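User: What would this chain look like folded?
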Amino acid sequence: MIEYTEKIRAVAKKLLEEGTVDVFIGYRKGSVPMMNEPLLIRDPAKVDLLHWDSNCGLNLSNYLPRRTERIGILATGCNSRNIVTHIIENQIKREQLYIVGVPCTGMIDHRAVKRAVGQKEILGVTEKDGSFTVKGKDFEETFKKTDYLQTNCAVCRHRNPVEYDELVADPVEELEGVDPYKDVKKIEGMSPDEKTGFFQRLIARCIRCYACRNACPLCYCPTCFVDESRPQWVGKSNDPTDTMTFHFLRAYHCAGRCTDCGACERVCPMGISMRQFTKKLNKDTEELFSWEAGLSLEQRPPLDVYLPDDYNDFIK
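Assistant: Here's the prediction, encoded as structure tokens.
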């Protein structure tokens, strides 16, 4: 995907010079290898700062809610679905946006790469033809990209943008025959006590830094429930019950809205696989309502279409 960079720069420059947008949102190389950063550009002379490769894992739609200017924005499959969700939830207007679609073959799991090189310091990374090379002080190793994809990318069924004004390349082939809920089904087969133990172990390392919340494009409430003091829903300490409450309630707030973009896991400093909370809800909404978030501007989310005459035979 590294070849997209020049096209992205050209599109951004044209949009800014012609006044089509006031700001363009993309990525630049990060100060740490394999950790590219979001970038907002208003000056067309600075488009050379824009960069694209398989380390652009943060969700740019996180920067859209309540903005008032005209915006150009890069959008992969999951990013575009979150943009659709923001439009449906009245956080941004479609006419404000010029969406530059980016067909995506997945993002590299930087933690898996670090494990593969024995936790040595990576000083540089280059990508070419489905592989990437990492370099350090005393080593250089090349890996096949498909062996080191983020776990959400390995099972992604929507690699191409669902909403866009322009594509930077031809659509890529969508994955077929993958089961995105294989790990969820394994947990569903556990006993109640086993499930309790699984989630307790999962969040045992959580330090309540809220990086997952801050990176999530769905967490745009003016005041998060964890910051409420009247009433105080969740304690401020690292008490395991409060920590579990935070993760479960945040997951329920994302029910029917999560696109499984993986931003929460990518930013977690403790490497917690918190998608285990949201993926169960994604599975339920797909099975019960035939719903996947952000695929259409014309359809409301299942939890947004309650009617007084809905059937209630399930209530005893």
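Residues 61 and 83 are 6 Å apart (CA to CA). If you want, I can go into more detail on any region.
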